[in-house]
Amino acid sequence: MKARTLRRHVRESFKSLGRNGWMTFASVSAVTITLLLVGVFFVIMMNLNHMANNIENDVEIRVHIDVAAAEEEQKALADQIQKLDRVDSVAYSSKEEELNQLMNSMGEEGEAFAMFEQDNPLNDVLVVKTKEPQDIMSVAKQIEKMDFASKVKYGQGSVEKIFEVTNTGRIIGTILIIGLLFTAMFLISNTIKITIFARRREIEIMKLVGATNGFIRWPFFLEGLSLGVLGSIVPIIIITITYYYSHDFISEKLAGDFLQLLPFGPFVFQISGLLLLMGAVIGVWGSLMSVRKFLKI
Fold first, then answer.
1. Which pTM does this prediction carry?
2. Phi, psi of 261 (to 5 degrees)
3. CATH code, residues 60-154
4. Tens digit of pLDDT for each residue in 53-63?
């Protein structure tokens, strides 16, 4: 396409947006409201997924080493666990470190355990992380069969419920996102179709005087692109400002390191790019599908 022709198409698309002011406003408003709902839902679901991942990654296996195991036998147990296919890392924690952690976790009440520093009743521990959190149950069963593994703990009972809840949440969230996206495409494309329908005579006249289908499509292509981009600007601004001011406030209210929101950057920029792309794609798609009908004369 020649540069002069492209300039003509761009000029005509913007003129059309101005001439059909109310229809342009209706289309942009539909895009704005729908993308705002989509954007808010994406922000909520992605943060919930982030928290679920943190909770799952916080799960670990604690292998209490038999008190009768010598240093070489402890090392052999650690090497045997590390060789398991689904094991990511194995960290050693001495019984002195375990006692200090217990005392620190209990605050002032933990000082009562200071009497055990000379005669520590705790076991040395191997802290095992799996490559995938869901592998923790099967790996724990393998470790239980190993020599000098006195006790294997991984939060049995609670861990299974955590995985079940997080997996159910992800499935429901995915279904809702897909449903919301289809709803957004339906609403926006139908609003744009109404705009194109109001100009069907213009398309028919251009077709009758010899204009090619491509020549007719280009202004509407650019017009749909403009409607989608314009409609995504307000949702991007609202979500960016709201997330910026609410991030620190909500993070302070949430307890624990794993219950934290996604950081402002680059998360907000990713959401903004996604909304901009969605607006542009849906706007172009709605325009082209609508024009296609009136080109068949």
1. 0.72
2. -75, 160
3. 3.30.70.3040
4. 888 888 899 99
